[in-house]
Amino acid sequence: DDDIFSSAFCENSEKLINVHLFALAAKYYSLSNLGVCTPLEDVLEALKGDSEGATGIKPDEFMSNKKSHEVQVMSELVDSIANYCGIKQVIDIGSGKGYLSSFLSMQYNLKVYGIDSSSSNTNGAHERNRKLKKHWRAYQSRGRENLKSQSLEKANDRPVESEIKCKTINEELLNNANSLQNQDQVIIQDLVPSGGFTEMATPTTNTEAEADLVTGTQSHETKLSEEVLAILNVLPADTVEDFSSSRYNCGELCEEEKVQRKMTSLKTKARKSSESNLYFPLTSCITAETELKDIITDLEDCMMVGLHTCGDLAANTLRIFTAKPEIKAVCSVGCCYHLLSEQFENQEESHDQVWGFPMCQYLKDKGWCCGRNARMSACLALERVAVGQVLPTESLFYRAVLQVIIEEIYGVTKSDRHVGKTFSKSSSFIDYVRRSLKKLELDDSKLPDSCIMDYYEKYKHRKNELEAFNMLKVVLAPCIEVLILLDRLCYLKEQENIAWSGLVKLFDPVKSPRCYAVIALKNQSC
């Protein structure tokens, strides 16, 4: 195959001579075609336990369609991994404004620490967290009302059966209350899961004689007891009291109503506690040498997650995961490949520095280097272009002509400063050039408007050529991304304490182009 694809280039000039073959080669070496990814459905199935999926908040009402898609898919996977590993603490690296962190905490009742290097992001996460609490309470109230209606409908369908079993219900509630009185902390946790209500098992009898006596009625009693407890758990305090009074018309509190009040009080305390600690945004710069215990004082067995961790942060997340025994699993989706540091990109190599690429020993031994242009290409979105989202040809053309101007007029071939998103703020090419020169701290007074337009006219006939060149870069993008992702996967495969690791396609690449997650779980003994 390599021999066939190599004929896409001229052997002497090394120029591209067969575009069709080039495109076929790029597709052949894409991640989707290599067969190295583990399907998300297979991962979820392997991690699946006895718990049902949570229902509740809808993230699309609080964030963009793209972010909502990412958060919903990734949070379900993270929760499944946490349940599989038996952990409740999650560390979200590069948490930004806390979209994933807050959702994991509210929806799945996980204790989440969101760490971001930007204090403005952390402050924004605090403010967003405060606003989300109000919406979350509304969702909880709505869920309670829905469950109340459903449970009341079921109860109304069999009023005779309910009265026959009334005594049994009272006994079950009292038994539950007595067994829970000395376990208030456990009750608080169990009564307020993010999904809505908890099914509580009916206590089993202690002797075989008692078991024989209830054999004929146990299944009916259990079912009815669970339904009543579900109602009690989801109704607010005043509704529970009114419901009880109208039902039994007692002049004073009966034992069942005391139990109901106790359960409601515990539930209210737990809700207030959980709402006051949705998650904890922290400001800190994470490197491969970061000691998490210095940042998180109550660090326990946990997992690390990262949703579009930028540049070297994705690589450092994996390094921290392999080095720290407390971290039992990792789920990392990287981005911004152009910001990766490369060990073999520059001649001046620092042996003490930790590089973003390569990570695995195999590529290190070969001295592999991508280069900035290739890493920039890896950030392009082939799937979006394939469905008709055009490349920003005009802005790319502006930037290309600007490059010629600053080289020929100012003699600058490399700068630490960046033009940024100047195109969207510019009214014309002249305006674009002048804004860019100011950002680059170059004197634009030596450049008249006529000279700027002369450059534009000189190169405008090559705009189509530029577009074709960028389309080739888009086609090649998945191949470069493969190299970076497989490097990270191979790094994990080289570690001795990893039980399983893999690449998983999490997102729709049209909605979220950086859609692949690197996932790993440690051996249970580690």
Kindly describe this structure.
This is MET25 protein. Residues 66-343 form the Methyltransferase domain. The protein has 23 helices and 7 strands. It is α/β, with parallel strands linked by helices and 526 residues long. Among the domains are: 6-137 and 274-386 and 476-522, Rossmann fold (3-Layer(aba) Sandwich); 388-460, no CATH class. It has a 7-stranded mixed sheet, sandwiched between helices. Strand 4 (302-310), helix 16 (312-323) and strand 5 form a beta-alpha-beta unit. Helix 2 (19-28) packs parallel to helix 23 and helix 7 packs across helix 12 (218-234). The protein is globular.
Task: Outline the fold blueprint.
Elements: H1 2-6, H2 19-28, H3 31-34, H4 40-47, H5 65-85, E1 89-93, H6 99-108, E2 111-116, H7 119-157, H8 159-164, H9 166-180, H10 184-191, H11 208-214, H12 218-234, H13 237-248, H14 255-276, E3 280-283, H15 292-295, E4 302-310, H16 312-323, E5 327-335, H17 361-365, H18 372-378, H19 382-386, H20 393-408, H21 429-439, H22 449-459, H23 463-493, E6 498-505, E7 516-522
Parallel strand pairs: 1-2, 1-4, 2-3, 4-5
Antiparallel strand pairs: 5-7, 6-7
Helix pairs in contact: 2-23, 4-5, 5-6, 7-12, 9-12, 9-14, 10-14, 13-14, 18-23, 20-22
Domain Methyltransferase: 66-343
Protein name: MET25 protein
Pfam family, one: Methyltransf_32
